[in-house]
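Feature request disguised as a bug report, sorry. It would help if multi-protein outputs had a clear separator. Right now it looks like this:
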Amino acid sequence: MKEPEESSTKHVAERLKWLKEYYDLSTKELASSVGASYTQMANWENGTQRLSLKGALAINDTYGTSLDFLFIGRVEALPQKIAKAWTSRPRESSSNKSSDSPVE
């Protein structure tokens, strides 16, 4: 079974980087706050390793995100303030349609 595009390691990494920027954290600070090593967090952010379920749950508990957001880009389960910030973020290219925007 083929992995959906929005759940690719690259897209998960993009959401992690955005979350780090949203909370104005360094990689080291984000890693420390969720009990991960700097190397592990850097690997997740760079897409060289897939975000673990344990890591995602720690991020959810600490920052109020959702597994659906982290793994598949679904914003509906996010708190309204975070969802609004995500949907209004600058994007690299307007021609790239993504499921990371809310369903109307």
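(second protein starts here, but nothing in the output says so)
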Amino acid sequence: MRTGELQKLDKKIVAARKLEGVITLSVYTCVILALLYCTLTFGWPTWILAGASCLAVASVPFELYLLPRWKYRLWRYRISELSIQIHKGIFFKRKVLIPMGKVQHVEAKQGPILKKYNLYTITLSTAAGSHEIRGLAEGTAESIRQDIEAYARLSDEQV
């Protein structure tokens, strides 16, 4: 693994995030149907249904096109012997620096959506909290997990 430059996530994360967008839009549809039922049955004001419908329709291009691509383009990470850097955020950019000596636990996990695309999430746990690198290919995730394990061991020996 190259440690000098910021690394991108796997390109398949865009498709996984689009699928998440479809699921989100399905939830919006269920909420709109429930609002329609309440409007017809209980006489709720129609502006509530109209407002929710407009918001749902307006969110379609964001959920299915813009957000998955923006997140892929802006998410970066770098792993070196001394630290792990994570750069993320669309509107509010965050740059997280995790000293290698502070990493207590590294976990590779895979939910049903990531499993469909054979992607993994690496979770880095420290005393202050946990951080995730989401959307890594299986080989990359395993390599990162082993690198962090080796670097953290080196860090412990240096103390």
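Even a blank line would do. Unrelated, but nice: The chain is about 55% helix and 25% strand.
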